[in-house]
Amino acid sequence: MVSGQPYLPADAAPPVSVTRASAAVTITMPTPALTTAGKQALLDAVLAAAGDASVRAIVLTGTGRVFCAGQDLTEHAAALREEPATAFATLTQHYNPLVTALTTAPKPVLAAINGTCAGAGMSLALACDLRLCADTAKFSAAFTGIGLGPDSGLSATLARAVGSARASELILLNEPFTAADAFGWGLVGRLVAATELDEAAAALAARLAAGPTLAYAAAKRSLATAWALPLADVLAAEQEDQQRLGLTEDHRDAVAAFLGKQRPVFRGR
After folding, report:
1. Would you put residue 70 in left (φ > 0), alpha (ψ -120 to 50) or beta?
2. Torsion angle of C-alpha atoms 17, 135, 103, 228, degrees rounded to 10
3. Cβ atoms < 10 Å from Cβ of 227
4. Does residue 78 contact residue 163 with C-beta atoms inside 8 Å?
């Protein structure tokens, strides 16, 4: 197809934008946080691109100043009020399948991190094979800030990227960090000026699309199985923690505090 022409597989629905340039597909998240509709559309788009033999590289990116800020907490707070026992069903329905789709796609997946990357957004970036980052981007693990442990594979992928000691600091202390930090720690592989990100991502995607796709797929499988703990086990353990922590007062109060622009108070219950 012509560069930039919309590429809309049948099972990809708004609110994601999917464009195609030759054999590379770019999936753009247009909103800062992930709603149910957004997560489903994103999953559909990734699965469609991963299953299309004519697609040889995938780019995942965001819009404006945000790559992805993670879960939409307004929607999440409503779920906690209405059906607290099933508020974390989205892990089974969306997040875990999405991370699995990104990590098992038989072609390289590039995260073009254009801005804020937090919570599950960081998990999605780390589920990609390569990370290209704007020098103005900001990062935050975010989960403990609302009384939760990490999900979407972050407890494994972050430790693999930066080492267990630094991963513990980033998750437990929940201190924001810069693109320069992320590059220095090895969380992102390439750092470019924000104004050059789109061009750099397109060039790298084109290079990957022109590369040995079968070898890339084999390399991805080897890298995934080289670690002692399978990702599926990590996802299951994280989900168990999320479902337990999601029923605590700390989590509910922290979500309310976040939405009220107040500092959360954690009471350990």
Report:
1. left
2. -160
3. 13
4. no
Instruction: Give the separation between CA 182 and CA 137, rounded to whole angstroms.
Output: 9
In eight-state DSSP terms, residue 104 is: H
Domain 5-196+213-259 bears CATH identifier 3.90.226.10 = yes
Sign of CA dihedral 214, 216, 218, 221: negative
Task: Report the half-sphere exposure of 203 (CA within 13 A, side-chain side).
Answer: 8
In the three-class reduction of DSSP (H, G, I as helix; E, B as strand; rest coil), residue 149 is classed as: coil
Q: Is the peptide bond before 97 cis (omega within 30 degrees of 0)?
A: no
Residue 82, number of CB atoms within 10 A of its CB: 9
The 3-state secondary structure of 212-245 reads: CHHHHHHHHHHHHHCCCCCHHHHHHHHHHHHHHH
The domain ranges of the chain are 5-196+213-259
Residue 14 CA to residue 7 CA, distance in Å, equals 12
**What would the pLDDT profile of 121-179 be if each residue is shown by its tens digit?**
999 999 999 999 999 999 999 999 999 999 999 999 999 999 999 999 999 999 999 99
**What is the three-class DSSP state of 176?**
coil
Exposure string over 140-167, b if 16+ CB within 10 A, otherwise e: bbbbbbbbbbbbbbbbbbbbebbeeebb
